[in-house]
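Quick one, probably user error.
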């Protein structure tokens, strides 16, 4: 028989021990060590056990817990420990068989009940301890968002994001201390939001778009003018085709080689939850533009690196996808392809004859798919209109098997 779990991770709400099931309460009352934040210790102060605060830095948590192995250890977390909470972090480092989870109603479930919203029809997000700009990617007409915030200032920051993008009439509700005797609620609209709210809160947003609101779908192919650029960027239609071949997936990592304005990397991160991207760009001015674009479009975690391939990728984590948008050569391809994970996708675009010849040679050697993309736009020709072609793009793609 497998050993019983030595670590219990318990979700606790504003009603403290009284809100726990009898079995879970018994686990907490029998603990020798209780780990948690000040709030968690206050909510369980009737239990006599050694109290341990969250370590600083927080990454020391696993070592702290391992040091208590052999004792009855309880970690207290807010609500559901596995929903944007510490339980997931612990579970990545300690085998599942050694942990028992005791979930409580999450802040999302309580907020949805207060709002009368169906959990199946909304987005659950967290900016707690994370860049608040990442919620921008979810601002859509008629979207409903529940957001775990970082502090009292977060609702005001999000209200500003909404107003700047033409969603100033969006309804906002801050819910604090849900389920406890001091539960409070603050309602308003984004463009006039001025409430002072408790630091520990959950924000509900009912997105309402004005007729001139910015439409920023998470499907790749954002308008070119949404990106700051010096002109050397992957244009809208080609970018959409490129992302289709790169296939963004949840948690997947992209290397964007020659990232320029960052348009491909940013759309990759917007297209799938928790998708990551590393942009490799030797020019400082372009890295600065990419960073600005990433903040404005909801991809603040874009990791920008100075350098050229292959030197710049020597110590990077293996990618799930690689885009070569600049600096194409057989040497660059060989280095990127060698690092690519099995089932990884690689896409390279070329606009010059010299780069196209490299792609043709690589296609002959490695297979994959070679396509030519041409785009024409209607533009004025005197008093009339005509089709003006953009430079054609040769695109080579393959899946590593």
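Nope, works fine. Designed sequence:
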């Amino acid at each position: 028989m497998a050993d019983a779990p030595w670590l219990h991770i318990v979700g606790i709400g504003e009603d403290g021990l009284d809100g726990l099931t009898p079995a879970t309460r018994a686990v907490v009352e029998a603990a020798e060590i209780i780990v948690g934040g000040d709030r968690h210790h206050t909510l369980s102060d009737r239990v006599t056990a050694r109290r341990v605060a969250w370590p600083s830095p927080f990454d020391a948590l696993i070592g702290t817990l391992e040091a208590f192995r052999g004792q009855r250890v309880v970690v207290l977390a807010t609500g559901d420990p596995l929903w944007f909470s510490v339980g997931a972090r612990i579970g990545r480092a300690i085998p599942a068989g050694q942990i028992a989870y005791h979930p409580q109603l999450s802040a999302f479930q309580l907020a949805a009940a207060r709002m009368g919203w169906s959990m199946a029809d909304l987005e659950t997000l967290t900016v707690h301890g994370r860049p608040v700009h990442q919620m921008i990617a979810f601002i859509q007409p008629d979207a409903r968002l529940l957001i775990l915030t970082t502090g009292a200032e977060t609702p005001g920051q999000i209200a500003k994001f909404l107003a700047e993008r033409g969603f100033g009439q969006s309804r906002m509700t801050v819910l604090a201390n849900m389920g406890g005797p001091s539960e409070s609620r603050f309602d308003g609209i984004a463009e006039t939001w001025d409430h002072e709210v408790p630091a520990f809160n959950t924000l509900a947003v009912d997105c309402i778009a004005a007729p001139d609101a910015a439409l920023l779908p998470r499907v790749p192919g954002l308008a070119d003018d949404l990106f700051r650029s010096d002109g050397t960027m992957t244009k809208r239609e080609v970018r959409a085709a490129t992302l289709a071949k790169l296939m963004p997936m949840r948690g997947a990592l992209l290397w964007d080689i020659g990232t320029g304005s960052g348009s491909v990397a940013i759309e990759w991160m917007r297209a799938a939850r928790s998708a990551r991207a590393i942009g490799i760009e030797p020019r400082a001015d372009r890295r600065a533009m990419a960073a600005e674009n990433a903040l404005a479009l909801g991809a603040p975690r874009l990791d920008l690196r100075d350098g050229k391939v292959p030197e710049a990728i020597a110590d990077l984590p293996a990618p799930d996808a690689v885009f070569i948008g600049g600096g194409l050569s057989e040497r660059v391809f060989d280095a990127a392809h060698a690092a690519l994970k099995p089932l990884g996708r690689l896409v390279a675009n070329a606009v010059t004859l010299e780069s196209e010849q490299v792609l043709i040679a690589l296609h002959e050697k490695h297979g994959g798919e070679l396509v030519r993309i041409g785009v024409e736009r209607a533009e004025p020709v005197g008093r009339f209109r005509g089709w003006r072609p953009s430079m054609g793009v040769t695109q080579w793609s393959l899946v590593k098997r």
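DSSP finds eleven helices and 19 strands in the chain.
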